[in-house]
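Q: Predict the assembly, please.
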Amino acid sequence: MSGRKSKSNSLIQAEYLSQVQRILRERFCHQSPHGNLFGVQVQYKHLIELLKRTAIHGESNSVLIIGPRGSGKTMLINHALKELMEVEEVNENVLQVHLNGLLQINDKTALKEITRQLNLENVVGDKVFGSFAENLSFLLEALKKGDRTSSCPVIFILDEFDLFAHHKNQTLLYNLFDISQSAQTPVAVIGLTCRLDILELLEKRVKSRFSHRQIHLMNSFGFPQYLKIFKEQLSLPAVFPDKIFAEKWNENVQSLSEDRSVREILQKHFNVSKNLRSLHMLLMLALNRITPSYPFVTAAHLMEANQLCSMDSKANIVHGLSVLEICLIIAMKHLNDIYEEEPFNFQMVYNEFQKFVQRKAHSVYNFEKPVVMKAFEHLQQLELIRPMERTSVNAQREYQLMKLLLDNTQIMNALQKYPNCPTDVRQWATSSLSWL
Amino acid sequence: MAHYPTRLKTRQIYSWVGRPLLDRKLHCQTYKEMSVKKEGCSTEIHIQVGQFVLIEGDDDENPYVAKLLELFEDDSATYSKKRARVQWFMRFCEVPVNKQNLLGRKPAAQEIFWYDYPACNSNINAETIIGHVQVVALAPGEVIPMDLKNEKTFFVKLSWNEKKFEPLSPELIAQLDKLQEGSPRCQKPLEAKTKSTESPSWTTEHAVKRIESRHSTSKSRQTPSHPVTPKARKRLELSSFPRTPNTRISQQISRASLDSPGRTKRKVAFSEITSPSKRSQPDGAQTSSPALQAPEKTGEIQHSCAKDDKKASPDCHMVLRTRVPALKTTEISEERTLTPTRGGRKSSVVPLVVLKPENIRKRETKEPEFRDEATSTPHRIRRKSSLLTLNRIRQQLRFLGNSKSDEEGEEFLPAAEISDSGSEEDEASTHPLPRRTHSSVSRNLRSSMKSSLQTPSKTPKKTPEPRTPRHATPRIRSRNLAAQEPTNTLEEARLRLHVSAVPQSLPCREQEFQDIYNFVESKLLDHTGGCMYISGVPGTGKTATVHEVIRCLQQAAQANDVPHFQYIEVNGMKLTEPHQVYVQILQKLTGQRATANHAAELLAKRFRTRGSSQDTTVLLVDELDLLWTQKQDVMYNLFDWPTYKEARLVVLTIANTMDLPERIMMNRVSSRLGLTRMSFQPYTHSQLQQILVSRLKHLKAFEDDAIQLVARKVAALSGDARRCLDICRRATEICEFSHQKPGSPGLVTTAHLLEAVDEMFSSSYITAIKNSSVLEQSFLRAILAEFRRSGLEEATFQQVYSQHVALCRMEGLPYPTMSEAMAVCSHLGSCRLLLVEPSRNDLLLRVRLNISQDDVLYALKEE
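A: Predicted assembly structure:
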């Protein structure tokens, strides 16, 4: 079929393909609030009602959105805020403050950020923003001035909420929750976190001020729904310029979702992780493999992508090692077997390697000790072996105790796949005793 | 400037007044006062040091203006023995003509300039002094009033140093103002108790001048927020000029607005109707009786009872004039007039020595509305002051003539109603709220009335600070659209159940309230200091109870039942660092800003050596445990200051733990804290139920069983009232969701509440495990298997992985690669289902379960 295509046709196809890739990549990488919500309608309703009450009635609230990574916490809040801002009477009346525990690493920077986002810094005028203490009292005063009915509600969104709980005395959280529980400016404090034990992190008086509302996002969908999400994520929108191509693409996606092998791949992927981000990853990898000659996703693409996703990274590193380094790893494996996971040092490994070379090795050249040392250090740099203690300057490197960070099964699997592995090395790996 | 020769037209006799003070350095005698007596005339002018005087000069029309700095007798002088030293002021016409254009604008008619030229001879003959004059210093922003008819008042705004005009420095302005106020001629009705008893002698002409001066001084001290009416803040005038329409309207408006609950509104109404002219009549014979001068502190209420002899109409109208540059200050001043406890007057039994007729008269306008109710109110013990007041009013009315229109009807009022608590009782009797009883009925009534009128959050004592950028008060911008009010029962219930909703009273904490109240009250009455430590788990109403106590005490203070006090609140959690507490206290106490160390010094100085007239300070320290430092100096100081007699500091401290003093405080600190302790027990279920019922009074939103259920649940868990309220609030939401038909939401049932309780308290671990992926679940299984194998509660990742692989082989499943397993492990770790070491340990990282093995098994079993 592809062979008969005219050149211009393939050019058009390539054009379409790049458009498709652009649209889908955007969908996979950006957490756009335009997408649909999957299986979180109840939680969404809870959240949006809460936000509306803050925005319209001026009721202060605090809520935590808890769910594992990739369960759609940020998407949920973005969705809710988008819908909230579309309500006309809310639009002008709500202030938003977005904080992230990874960016605002202490209360001082968090306060500055809040002040900046509330546009309060111009109140201070030409005054250079003062000390931490001044900032705190400044902000608290500002928030204290308001009351339920007349002040503009402020929505605080604290991403990585658990990190805020590690701030000194939890001053920021205490004050935010205190405002939410007293007749001051109406606020909604929304924390996003993946930690299930978040409430145990809060100090008792902070905890008491928190309203204990929790919205859990648990990825509680099954495989049929996962399949539906897969279809929806891969389908082209109706606004795609070429209707015919889009139809063909969507038909292809539909047939893919009914394909047995594709289902198997997806099931496997689903079993490993229900995370939607990992699905995005899989689809992204598959998308990148499409060529203009046949501009549709195939089962083979997905297969390859799945292989990439589930690849063992350390086995890959082992594939790239030299024969000498492989030999050292085998020596370490034997040491582990003999001494039952006790740590070893370079001298022991070298001795073991010497034994192998002297007795039987025909294919392995007897390297000088410094060369072996170099190989050993390379392994350490690759973090395949790890020193037990910190390396000090004057310690002799030959006698530093090390541990191997590879499992026996990993070594054996890697050796199976190792290209051009000498037979005697492979035999040595299977049994150290065979050389005695 | 040249020496001015004396040119006497009529002979004047100059004589010293008062005892001379010998200045040993200059060998001359200085005097404080001088009297000038014109021959053949009985009038006598007294001139004192510090006053502004006119000095004879070359121009008879425009005599020189100066400030008298010193009066002394110089025997060495040949010409005249009576000498004076002055600070000159320049008229604009005295400025050299070629330099007049330096001003850059037209000078105002009465404008003069501070003459800042040290080379000028300031030693003059005292006998050249003609008389005194009024000079008002204006800040650079102020406008010179143009409508002044009085030529005896000058305004100084700039200084002239023979080179250029410069604005007056603030110190200079303050100095000028101070001098003016300090001089007895100006008679500032300040807090000085002796002022009003002093009987200065002056002629009618001077009286006018004096009134004028008072106006101008009061103006100069104000912030010029309103350029047209920057004059006296409040002026009550009894005038009888044929301005009938205006005054009548004003009276009506004032009447009407008196009914309105908000006092500020009334102020606005007054301020709107006042005419901008300061003096309503150019030359009316104004008489001002000294007795009318009230010792006001904040807003000096100017009033003058004027009576026109030539009046045509028999009507005598009362005009309540209020000029309100800053609503707040006047409001305060009015509060003051109701409960006059300024200055040294501390206890309520002291009757008013100087009455405030304006106050009483205002009440008279109020009376007609209240009369009917007032007669039905039980008579309370009438105070001497009220009787005295009554007599004064009667005298006043007689003085004004018997021509009051009957609609006013003041003369016919029963005495009890004019007493300064009459109208309060009226309002109190109609007030439906049941208040807790503490000391006396009268206080109770009064406090309930006050609470409905004002917010007691802060003491009204604070003088308004000048608005500088440093004191900029930030605020969140207000919303364009007003917040919606609740529309149905559930929303109303939700509003009332919010923790922030301040309850009218705190049920179930009566005993604690009483104890704290008694403690603070006794300290206030004794003028001593003391400490109290209040402990209790979060959400048991510690802070709320203390706030309630303070509110009641503030009302009592307003009602004059307890001495006035200043209330300061600090919260350990709202500080960045323990030492910042000094900064906050100092700022709230005095408005000063200082660094922590400096503030500590200032506070220590203040509390150790302060005047006896100062009020008691009540300091609430919330979250005390956060003020702990290595040296414990902060806590030490806080508890040490009250031990000084001069400090009059009552410290109430709040913390969560009962044994905090023993646990973290050094002996010397806990010893100073003393043994006055109070512990708030967690609420029992019946108390929680009572709290809920009281909040939901007259609102049928909950089933009775539901309330009982939530009360029992929370009491069993923590006894935290906040939790209880939050659960109920959530339950109303659930109820609203479940009833799809809008408009007719039913009652909140036990089912809704149980759902809310489950949502808030149920552990999410099990659902999390149930919803995790297959690989995650099998990894957890592998962990369990490994634990069982090793008998330990901890395993390395490598061990778990090999166990995992073995399990998968046994079941014939494809086993995951190491990377996948590691990803699963860290994912579970990030949810805190597992406790893991940092992943750089790779294979060797140790893994633990964060929940019990039984829970994991239970969660994994139910598939």
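Chain A has 22 helices and seven strands. The mean pLDDT of chain A is 84.
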